[in-house]
Amino acid sequence: MQEDCLLKLRGIEKRFPGVRALHNVDFTLRKGEIHALMGENGAGKSTLIKLLTGVYSKDDGTIYVEGKEAHIHSPQDAQNNGISTVYQEITLCPNLTVAENIFIGRESNMVVKRKDYEKRTAEILSNLQIPARPRQQLGNCSLAVQQMVAIARAVDMQCKVLILDEPTSSLDDKEVNMLFKLMRDLKARGVGIIFVTHFLEQVYEVCDRITVLRNGELVGEYLTEDLPQVQLVSKMIGKELDELNNLSEKDNVVIEKGEVFYEAKGLSSSSALPFDFTIHKGEVNGFTGLLGSGRSESVRAIFGADKVNGGTVKIKGKQVQIDRPIQAMKNGIGYLSEDRKGDGIIAELSVRENIILALQVMNGFFKPISRSESEAFADEYIKALSIKTASRETPVGSLSGGNQQKVILARWLLTHPDYLILDEPTRGIDVGTKLEIQKLVLKLAEDGVSVTFISSEIEEMLRTCSRLIVMRDRHIVGELKGSELNQAQVMRTIAGGETKNEG
Amino acid sequence: MKDNTKKSFDIKSIFRGGLGQLTIPIIAIALLVIFNLIRDPSFFSIGFSSNNEGNTVLEGNLISIINSASELAVLAIGMTLVTAACGGQDISVGAAAAIAGSAFVKVLKSGSEIGAGTVIAAFILACVVAMIFGAFNGTLVAVFKIQPMIATLILYTCGRSIAYWINGGATPTVSSPIITAIGSFIPGIPVPTPVIIVIVMIVLFKLLFRFTSLELLTQSVGINGSAARLNGINTTFIKLLSFIFLGICVAVAGCIGVSRLGLINHETLLLDIEMDAILAVAIGGNNLGGGRFKISGSILGAYIIQMLTITLYAMKVPSTDVKAYKAIVIVILVVIGSPVVKQKFNRFMTQLQMKKNQTAVKEGGKA
Question: What pLDDT sits at residue A335?
């Protein structure tokens, strides 16, 4: 048993100023197992991984690699100990070839033996059954293949421990399956894999064991088959599931048709094909479809985020023009974008400044929000959304993903919108916060705010939306409501619905 | 346990949070002052004397440092804004100041005598001209998305030629009591006028930040332009605006420069000042890649550069060698302010604090 242990962490401590990120955490990884590391955002998963990869140094505790104590102070140390990591964002160079990416930074001598590398790469690729060619530019490969190349690079560096940090968050189902196949393959070769993900189904599909962290402490280590999904969730969020169930049992009442708030006819933008769309006051609707189906592009067109090419837009029956975000905002529309880091947060600005930003822009250049006023706003929303931050002046970039998302939500709530568009507000954030956001959406709708809610998780949309617009290949292919709102029907519509235009 | 964490917080805040990005400029000034006091205790003595016009005026090394850094300080304000919004620098400020100065002189020379009205008109025209050239740079950067250094290279190259054309190639002198007053002292006021102008500029920009949302918008655009746009900010306009504000600073600096000498020399007016202005922004702890900024840092930076120069002159360093010595000090400052050193320093402080805490805990246990 002992010799099977690849990696053993005992009594790990890590403190940051004012925060204890990890306290007395144990973790064990055995040879040839896929081990899920689960926890809410802020539970300490990332910190633990950064300790293993040498980004941070531990304050206390011991790390054993194959029974021997290891000191990991730099990524180089981690590599020498056979620990490799593949991150969510691909950290390879898209403008180099696959072969170059696999061998970059590893040349033992100064001469680049291109031919040798390409030959060796071809072997590795066929060995792991990765559908790529050595001389292909990496940027031209699909994200999944890029992800797999990153893994191949790690494997070829003789890694014993492979850490996969949210590798599936930007992959579609087929690509995820490809990745899982590769993971099982590596497992059969005795590699130990630490798998971090927010997708619970995926954990149950590939993992042998699950370690759960909460608030920087170890909750426990379980065999996957011993831990049903509901229990896993309750262990992660530390409360029983009644709440979660209540929400999911909410019957999807079709909201009485109130006043139409927003109506678009033939709206199109530089990235969205013409479409019609209507939303009523106090309604929650959703856009669904696979990645690239045009759901995000459509809502961006509503907000004027891309160049609007045509169509007419009416708000409360009055024709308005929305080509730029500011016009949408002035008409009471708020938009939380899909890409939190790229289009959402202003990382170096404080939580306070991030919260007041949209309201400040709407107020105009010559009406700055005073310091005391902005502090009051920030405190109000930090409390209302229970945003976990050291203070309101903390740079938002140092918050966890879920809390960053809450800050952006606060930013839009502060503008008191009539219509709020939320594009993937729950992506990459923990179960507890997801639930909070879903509740918030329903609460907003009760208060008469129209909400468009987009999520990759269909279940989540079924729980919150009273109407689903289904998109495929940049066209609206169906609209589901009432009794049609079930997973099977959504899947069928996504897969085989007829194009509205043809009907 | 709780007390200890609190304590470490306090110590940290003194070194990091308390002064923030101003730590290094303030330490640098302190070191320069201490060095000069040791070298020559009378270096900072300030006295009164009578100047050519018979006014009682302040005199001393400190006054001459603050006075001669005026143009640089004014330019550093505008350069900070451009840096923050665009993540790049304007290298044409010296040339643009020559253009503004030439326009200033052109108007002054147009009438038979130079009255207050003429001076005001000349200054306004200089401002307009500099703002137009600022808008030209700004358009290249904000609309055509050319890198700031490349965009402003154009005006850097041709600016002094344009200045040459304005006055037909001559270097005309302007003699008027008003111009002398602007360049040196206003009768009855012992503080040099350029220093007063700098103070006025600082107050004006403080008011601008107080009564508009420019600061928040500029920082948002500089840190994450894409997010700023989706929050309804007109990023093009904010970038353009930063160049126009820099234009005003350029005009003010140009007019001070002309008034000091009482003539316009389009070839030498504020020569090479753009690099010092950028340096002032950097020494002030501002990120040259844009984003968060502190005007006060840049102004301190400007005075540090000038104090360094005057210290070197006072040490009888030959003027040909001054730049080399300046470079040595600047390298030290920039390296100390670099992220790598900061991180090392913070780590060191944390460790020190933790050791202290541990011994404190041990001693507490013994007691």
Answer: 96
